[in-house]
Specification:
The complex is a heterodimer of chains A (477) and B (537). By secondary structure, chain A is an all-alpha fold. Chain A has one domain (2-474). Chain A has 20 helices and 2 strands. The relative contact order of chain A is 0.10. Chain B is mainly alpha-helical. Chain B has a domain at 273-492. Chain B has helices at 7-24, 30-53, 84-103, 112-131, 135-144, 146-156, 161-190, 195-204, 211-228, 237-244, 247-272, 274-300, 305-324, 329-360, 376-390, 396-411, 413-438, 455-473, 475-492, and strands at residues 63-71, 76-82. In chain B, strands 1-2 form a two-stranded antiparallel sheet. In chain B, helix 2 (30-53) runs antiparallel to helix 3 (84-103), helix 12 packs parallel to helix 17 and helix 16 packs antiparallel against helix 17 (413-438). Classes of the chains: A mainly alpha (477), B mainly alpha (537). The interface between A and B is medium-sized, with 29 and 32 residues.
Chain lengths: 477, 537
């Protein structure tokens, strides 16, 4: 029981919220938001309890090992931050409904299931739980056409991708007769129909690559990220990416390790393409939210470099680097999107680069935090993003992937163009448009504080997290 | 290794502490902001002079070393140390910073707190670069420097400041990103980031780099440093950055930031990758000489005083690079000396240009003319600094240039000859600019009533001129302390002799191996000792 504690708490909180919803008057819906926050924080608190009871749960469908705990920390850590950041946004947009918080909690539960799954169908279940919640969340701004567009695109393409994943699972089952990852590990080298197996693997990769937003399955990302309400974008940018990456790691290493020669090249090419396309496309964006969406694509590319390194010669180093980067990335994107949720103003009207002009004089602290997030995304020293990139470089060089490392270095350089543009607008230009965003709400301030401190701390004291990441990498069997 | 003292840490981080103090002040309390910044930078300067006291000029290796663990994995240490090469560069940094702060006393009026904050953070970054002995730590300080400089140029600069700031960042980052890959690769093959350990491994033969790897690593490091120096043709960011930066920014940029490139060449490129350095030396020397002559020629035709000084930087630092790649102790001594000279004299030239800008809000030479009449003291200072920059004997520039030419001559006569032309051209562009601005009748009526140097300006220029004269006349005081370091660079370039692989037997027409005389003069193959370190002809 304790092994599923976070998911249970979060689901319970979500259900309670839904049950209480009819009884809470419209003006007081925020209370349910606080309940949601309590639930999310409760889940985080229960993580040590979960970690103390390592082992399998649900008849062996879920596992609690170091890797699973690490991913749970990321996923369940983002939940309270998303809820904190969204509270005031929803009030301002007049969208304060309880379903939002319930859906965020359910999505988190789904992602937790994905992270801890030992069996492919369980992965699918978790994937569906989190995806369906995300589809509805993406459409939350009912009045805005963009939100509808984003949800439609996400739903259609997401369903396709999930279907691909399911077909892949079916093929693997057809070739081996089982869907449990530990059984597959042994069965795969011996399977008679290798072609079916590889096709299944390919389809599963497509399904997950969609979720991570890698080229050429990335086309949904800019539109969905831009259209969805910004706190939802914060959730989408951090949680599902981590969960999908975890699934990929488990599939590739717990099951398909013997086939690494094959999937390594797919990952290599994906990584190179994703970094290049993501960074180059971001350069021409004028909408900051869209630009950050493309930057998410680029960062998925960096994660894939870590995956390629792990599939190459340096397995532990690559996985550990990828896990560390996931944490750093989640912090950066959460902070950035939450700040944007606040700065966008009512109706998210003010998200062009021009609207950021002169921010440093109006709201110096907010501008400084946003600068920190952008510099961390760029990968400048003194930030967690830099150290994350260094670890990935190292893993890549260890695995002799020199060309990939050089491509990553050059892609990082391209990043300077668009990240610095926002900083330039904030600091070098005079404020033009009226200030519509109002004072900094407490929730947003808390998120900004926590993520900024996290980014700086991770640079100066990466030891504990990196050790845990290395342990998690070792436990991936 | 026991930590000898905390002096280096204090010198490095005191400016940042001061800037934290600045944060506590109110944004419109300009007086105290300036005072705190000035006091902090002066304190740092005094502390850096203490380094001189503890410095033993006859001891090889690094002194005042601090070696503490920082990050466990990858093993990165907080490793600082000073030797003859970095000693005076640090003192130059801490000397120029309070001078720049004084120079910006009146001219910076908007967002004053941010300006001095950036200056102090920049100082920490610069000192850290010169003192780091751990490759990763060096890279962190190197990159950290980018952001304050970007803001300094972009916020407080002149008309085209944003273009210049972005260009500066992009150029520098392009080099550094590849340098990061090279540093990580070096870590991978050596197992450590510590420069001293890698050096020992390379010199003892514990670590051998084969030719391609060494060339690639050298290339990555060299690119980053060549962009910083700047070496032709990677110099195009410099004129924009210099011209558009505020006065203090230009002084620090020219005085210190450019030296980081040449420092990097001496500290990393030559000792770590000697074979590649030697192999590519003709190309590098060629680019340096082109830089010297091109920089000088372009300076001559500049109507804008700051742009003239910027191109003269390209020219002067071409000399330094030439001295470095002469692989002679005397040439390297000259290069180190010229680095310090250039910092002081070009810094001085930018200060002078800044003073003119404060009065007339222009840098165009034709707007001035006959300034000798209303501003005699200023003209005297200006002349003194010009003469230093062009290398008049008895002043600092001469010592540096002479030593460089001496060293270069020993390696290649033609290089030295071409470079010497640069000396003549320097006289041309500097003296002509001076004449147009200062001598003769007052051509522009607006110039007639210009005030001469104020007390603050004299406070800035007197120490500068004193240092110029002192470095020109009493150069052994400096050269004695840099001598060990220059020889160390050459020592560190030595590699153990590599035994040649056994010669394969030749085969005759039918494919049967020919029997060779195993012993005797006819069979003996001359074994060339690989990678000699001394670099003599």
């Amino acid at each position: 029981m304790y092994r599923m504690a976070p998911e249970l708490i979060v689901c319970l909180a979500g259900i309670v919220i839904m049950l209480l919803d009819p009884f809470v008057p419209r003006e007081r819906k925020g209370l349910l938001g606080r309940l949601g926050l309590v639930g999310a924080v409760g889940a985080v608190v229960s993580l040590p309890l979960m970690a103390a009871n390592a082992g399998t749960a649900m008849y062996g469908l879920l596992i609690v090992d170091d890797f699973s705990v690490f991913l749970h920390i990321i996923v369940f850590g983002t939940a309270p931050l998303v809820i904190l950041g969204s509270y005031h946004y929803l009030k301002r947009e007049n969208l304060q409904q309880s379903e939002f918080y319930a859906l965020v909690l359910f999505a988190t539960a789904g992602m937790g299931v994905m992270a801890g799954a030992t069996e492919l169908m369980t992965v699918f279940v978790g994937l569906e739980i989190s995806s369906i919640s995300s589809y509805i969340l993406a459409c939350y701004r009912r009045a805005a056409l963009k939100s509808h567009e984003s949800a439609m695109k996400y739903f259609l393409l997401g369903s396709f991708a999930t279907a691909f994943f399911l077909y892949g699972v079916a093929m693997v089952y057809g070739a081996t007769g089982d869907t449990r990852l530990n059984v597959l590990r042994v069965a795969i080298p011996q399977a008679a129909n290798q072609a079916l197996l590889m096709l299944g693997l390919g389809m599963m990769f497509v399904g997950m690559a969609f979720k991570i937003a890698t080229v050429p399955f990335h086309v949904w990302t800019p539109d969905v990220y831009e259209g969805a309400p910004t706190p939802v974008t914060a959730l989408l940018a951090s949680g599902p990416k981590a969960a999908a990456f975890a699934v990929l790691l488990r599939i590739f290493f717990a099951a398909f390790e013997s086939a690494s020669g094959t999937w390594f090249w797919a990952v290599w090419i994906s990584a190179a393409l994703t970094m290049v396309v993501g960074n180059l496309a971001a350069v021409v964006q004028t909408n900051v939210k869209r630009m950050l969406a493309y930057s998410s694509i680029a960062h998925a590319g960096y994660l894939l470099v870590a995956l390629a390194a792990a599939g190459g010669a340096s397995k532990e180093a690559g996985i550990a680097a990828g896990l560390f980067y996931l944490v750093a990335y989640a912090l950066m994107k959460l902070g950035a999107f939450t700040t944007l949720a606040h700065l966008g103003g009512p109706g998210e009207q003010r998200l062009e680069i021009d609207d950021f002009a002169g921010l440093s004089t109006r709201q110096p602290l907010t501008a400084a935090c946003l600068t920190l997030y952008l510099l961390s995304l760029l990968g400048l020293p003194l930030t967690a993003g830099f150290l994350g990139k260094v670890y990935i470089f190292q893993a890549a060089l260890d695995a002799q992937l020199i060309w990939l490392a050089v491509i990553m270095a050059l892609a990082t350089l391209v990043g300077a163009f668009y990240y610095l543009r926002v900083i330039w607008a904030m600091y070098f230009r005079e404020a033009q448009a009226e200030w519509t965003a109002g004072a900094l709400p407490h929730g947003v301030a808390a998120v900004m504080f926590l993520t900024s401190v996290g980014i700086l701390l991770l640079f100066f004291f990466p030891g504990p997290l990196m050790n845990f990441a290395a342990q998690s990498a070792l436990s991936l069997r | 290794m026991p930590n000898e003292s905390y002096l280096l840490t204090v010198v490095t981080f005191l400016p940042v502490l001061g800037s934290a103090g600045l944060l506590a002040l109110r944004s419109d309390d300009h007086t105290w902001i300036r005072r705190l910044a000035l006091v902090t930078s002066l304190a740092t300067f005094v502390l850096s002079l203490l380094m001189l006291r503890g410095f033993d000029m006859n001891m090889p290796g690094y002194q005042l070393v601090e070696n503490r663990p920082w990050i466990e994995w990858p093993p990165i240490k907080y490793h600082l140390g000073v030797d003859g090469l970095s000693l005076f560069l640090v003192i130059l940094t801490t000397f120029l910073t309070p001078i720049s702060i004084l120079a910006s006393w009146q001219s910076i009026r908007t967002r004053v707190k941010g300006f001095f904050l950036m200056m102090l953070v920049l100082e920490t970054g610069m000192v850290g670069v010169f003192l780091s002995l751990d490759l990763f730590l060096f890279f962190v300080f190197w990159e950290v420097m980018l952001v304050p400089m970007y803001f300094l140029i972009g916020i407080w600069g002149h008309e085209r400041r944003i273009y210049a700031a972005i260009k500066f960042v992009l150029f520098t980052m392009a080099g550094s990103v590849l340098m990061l890959v090279a540093i990580l690769w070096l870590f991978r093959i050596s197992g450590t980031f510590d420069l001293t350990v890698i050096q020992v491994m390379l010199q003892s033969g514990g670590l051998r780099l084969d030719r391609t790897i060494e060339l690639l690593l050298f290339g990555a490091f060299f690119l980053a440093f060549a962009i910083k120096v700047p070496l032709f043709p990677l110099h195009t960011w410099l004129p924009d950055a210099h011209v558009e930066a505020p006065t203090a920014g230009s002084v620090i940029l020219a005085g210190v930031l450019l030296k980081m490139g040449t420092y990097g060449l001496l500290r990393f490129c030559l000792p770590l990758f000697p074979a590649a350095s030697k192999e590519l030396a003709p190309w590098v020397a060629g680019l340096a000489i082109i830089g010297i002559l091109y920089g000088a020629l372009v300076s001559m035709v500049q109507p804008d005083l700051k742009k003239l000084i910027a191109y003269s930087s390209v020219s002067h630092l071409g000399f330094v690079v030439l001295g470095i790649f002469s692989f002679q102790a005397i040439g390297i001594q000259g290069a180190i000396y010229q680095m310090l000279n250039h910092g002081v004299s070009t810094g001085g030239l930018f200060l002078v240009a800044g003073m003119l800008y404060e009065r007339r809000h222009t840098h165009l030479i034709k707007e001035f003319g006959g300034l000798g009449t209303p501003m005699p003291a200023f003209s005297a200072f200006f002349l003194f600094i010009c003469l230093s920059s062009l290398g008049l004997p008895m002043l600092n520039g001469f010592v540096g240039e002479f030593l460089i030419l001496l060293g270069t001559y020993q390696t290649n006569v033609w290089w030295a000859t071409s470079a010497a032309l640069g000396v003549i051209l320097a006289a041309v562009y500097l003296l002509w600019a001076y004449q147009r601005a200062i001598f003769g009748d007052v051509t522009n009526e607006k110039n007639r009533a210009l005030p001469d140097c104020s007390l603050r300006e004299r406070l800035i220029l007197w120490p500068l001129c004193a240092v110029i004269l002192w470095m020109g006349v009493a150069s052994p005081m400096f050269l004695n302390r840099t001598e060990m370091a220059s020889q160390q660079v050459l020592e560190q370039m030595k590699r153990p002799e590599v035994p040649q692989p056994p010669v394969r037997a030749e085969k005759d027409d039918r494919g049967v191996p020919k029997l060779r005389e195993p012993y005797g003069p006819a069979a003996a193959q001359p074994v060339e000792p690989a990678q000699q370190g001394t670099g003599t002809r």
